[in-house]
Amino acid sequence: MNSFYKKNGPVIATFFLVAIIFWLVFLIVIPQLYMLDLSFRPNLPPLLRGGPDDVYTLTHYKHFLYGSETSKDAYNYVDIGVFFDTIITAVLVTIINLCFCYPIAFYIAKLATPNTARLLVLALVIPFWINELLRSFAIRILFAGEGVINNILLELGLISTAVNFIALDIALYTGLTYAYILLMIFPLYNALETLDTNQLEAAKDLGSSTVRTHWRIVIPHAKAGIASGCTMVFMLTAGALATPVVLSSPNTYWFTQLIYQWFNMNDNWSRGSAYSIILLVVSVTFVLLMMRLFKVTIGEVVR
Amino acid sequence: MSAEVELQNVSIAFGNFYAAKNVNVKIGAGEFFSFLGPSGCGKTTLLRAVSGFLEPSQGKVLIDGQDMAGIGPNKRPTSLIFQNLALFPLMSVADNIAFSLEVRGHDKVSRRKRADELLDLVALNGQGDKKVHELSGGQKQRVAIARALAVEPKVLLLDEPLSALDLKLRQKMRTELRAIQQRVGITFIYITHDQGEALTMSDRVGVMNEGELEQVGSCYDVYEAPCTPFVATFVGENNAFYGKVEKVEGGKVKVQTGGSSFIGQAGLGLDKKNYKFKAGDEVIMFVRPEAISLKGSSKKAQNSFSAEIKTIEFEGNLKNIFLRSKEGVDIRFSVPSSTDTSGMAPSKNVSLSFSQDNAVVLPTGALALD
Q1: Count of CB atoms within 10 A of residue A49's CB?
Q2: Phi–psi pair at A258, nearest 5 degrees
Q3: Most exposed residue of A2, A253, B256, B321, measured as fewest CB within 10 angstroms of its CB?
Q4: Residue numbers in A near B154 (CB within 8 A)
Q5: In chain A, where are the structural domains located?
Q6: CB-based contact B139:B124 (threshold 8 Å)
Q7: pTM of the entire structure?
Q8: Cα–Cα distances in Å, from B368 out to B159, B182, B208, B332?
Q9: What does DSSP say about strands B282-287 and B318-325: parallel, antiparallel, or unpaired?
Q10: Is B249 helix (H, G, I), strand (E, B) or coil?
């Protein structure tokens, strides 16, 4: 702490400390703790809060598992189904994202000339100056029944009737994949950039094929970057709202849409909080399990 | 199994810049050949053309008489050791060495067996399970050699692999590399800017400057009979006396330089024939520091001059004495450390002499810059 003050001077050091503590405590810890607390309380009108009925309860978590008391089903198939759909789709989107971004990041980091690399990075970044909602609508326009892609395919005679990309969730997958592409590319790029190019040449000189060089040398080297990118993309995809709202088919529901409904339409903040906590805990656990599986430590991921 | 490597008129251009110009050399099977030159002279580029990482813009690379055009580095009978070694840090030593066998689909047991054999060869027995970062600089060096030898190349290419080591280790590795080369009996092509490395290890040396191969010859030849002023000054130290030819008598050339006239030998050209000078030609006479002695200390010395002492430098086994002649030519000469130099001191004048046999006269040209 002393050396931190000495290094940065009293004004800047105090600013950093205050800013970081404010950010952590007021913007992250307190709201999350408040939500955690809320998720264990019944949904009461304001007048009854703090009254005798305001006791800790598991009712909202039970609702997620078993549904409302009037329901005849043994479990809350709808919500649980939506939940697993969301997690599985997020995993798929993360994998698709990785498959797309790895070659791009490798090209920028190792193969492109510095000028080409700069141009490519710019081309990747500029679309993200447009906000997420508008980008989602743009993708909707591309994939709509009478959208650009259908028109082109029809014009070329490749299809005879328009494909319903929205109902097939192709638009959703595309939108979600594209939404967080930068969060995959940059950690990958950072990791790949530090790879000594001589190692690629050495592997080639020893007779290794491109695939094997990537499998044995490049991917192990970039493992932490891959984990970092996958974590961010998975977390953000599982928690995305705007893109699924705009692009999902009428019968596809995203778990965040449920949370949103509890908060805003049904005015049940407690249940919304419980659903948020479920999503958070399962997502974090899933990521930690994956990191365990691929032998990556937290330290490596945030490096 | 070793192979002959031949470069025929090899030029390598990057845009308008020629990294190598018209290089012609034939390296014999089983030979230890060094390309020696300052940094940026194109020697690494040339090595990359032999290994297949780049194609010459003009000319041909032949290995065992076969044109290598269009054949990639993984298909050539060569193996390259990189300047930074490029060991795979996430693999064990044995996995590094056996990587080429893994690529070729050998099973684990035979890979390990081969790795252990190679570890024996480079005197690293029992170190196979270590991680690369657990090894010392010299040990990493040996792993790199073992890994390169695992593919059983006919030609081993070495790109300044010793440059990261400290002096003692470098000297030890020189001897060892030479010993390994003789044990495996394959062609070694070695790139270095260190003349000590080139001269101690090689059968022959090719001296390069600005993309051109200036001279190819035995270590003795490039030191004792340089063909160009660059070679004369890059390989070892040399004193350069600029002057004009006064008279030519047989192989002897009398050169007027400053106020004095010295007699020296006409140098050998690339065609192995003495340069033909005539009176009035601009020339440089080169005299090695160790060929200069104090006047009167040698009977054979026929050229003499006097100069003022500037500084005396102690270098362990030698003392280097820097002087300036009255014509303003900087001269250095060396005497064994045991020589009594108590009579010498800066700003004193001394008379020096050197033998005609030790003075080489060459046409003017660029010197190697220190």
Answers
A1: 12
A2: -65, -45
A3: A2
A4: none
A5: 77-301
A6: yes
A7: 0.82
A8: 21, 32, 11, 16
A9: unpaired
A10: strand
- Can you give the three-state secondary structure of B74-141, one letter per residue? CCCCEEEECCCCCCCCCCEHHHHHCHHHHHCCCCHHHHHHHHHHHHHHCCCCCCCCCEHHHCCHHHHH
CA distance B245 to B253: 7
Q: Compute φ and ψ for B30, nearest 5 degrees.
A: 80, 10
Tokens of B223: 């030191």
Both structure tokens of B254: 């009398």
Asked if residues B155 and B189 have their Cβ atoms less than 8 Å apart, the reply is: yes
Residue among A236, A235, A252 at smallest CA distance from A244: A252
Q: CA dist A49 to A35, A53, A55, B268, Å?
A: 15, 8, 10, 106
Question: How many angstroms separate the CA of residue B54 from the nearest CA in chain A?
Answer: 11
Q: Is the pLDDT of residue B358 over 80?
A: yes
Q: Identify the closest residue of chain A to B50 by CA–CA distance.
A: A205
Nearest to B106 by CA among B118, B97, B98: B98
H helices, E strands: number in chain A: 17, 0
Q: What is the CATH number of domain A77-301?
A: 1.10.3720.10
d(CA B79, nearest CA chain A) in Å: 6
Give the mutation candidate from B45, B51, B91, B103 for the A interface (greatest A CB count, under 10 A).
B103
Give the integer Cα–Cα distance in Å for A164 and A173: 14
Q: CA-to-CA distance for A206 and B156, rounded, in angstroms? A: 12
The C-alpha atoms of residue B7 and residue B24 are separated, in whole angstroms, by 5
How many Cβ atoms from other residues are within 10 Å of residue A186's Cβ?
Answer: 19
Contacts of B91 in chain A (CB under 8 A): 216
Q: Is the ipTM of this complex over 0.85?
A: no
Two tokens, residue A152: 């082109």
d(CA B176, CA B180): 6
Q: How many residue pairs from chains A and B have C-beta atoms closer than 8 A?
A: 57
Going residue by residue through chain A, which has 303 residues, state the pLDDT in tens, using 9 for 90 and above.
Answer: 778 888 888 888 889 999 999 999 988 899 999 888 888 888 877 777 777 777 888 888 888 888 777 777 778 888 888 899 899 999 999 999 999 999 999 999 999 999 999 999 999 999 899 988 899 999 999 998 888 888 899 989 888 888 888 888 889 999 999 999 999 999 999 999 999 999 999 999 999 999 999 999 999 999 989 999 999 999 999 998 888 888 888 777 888 888 898 888 888 888 889 889 999 999 999 889 988 888 888 777 666
Q: Percent helix, strand and coil across chain A, each rounded to 5?
A: 75, 0, 25
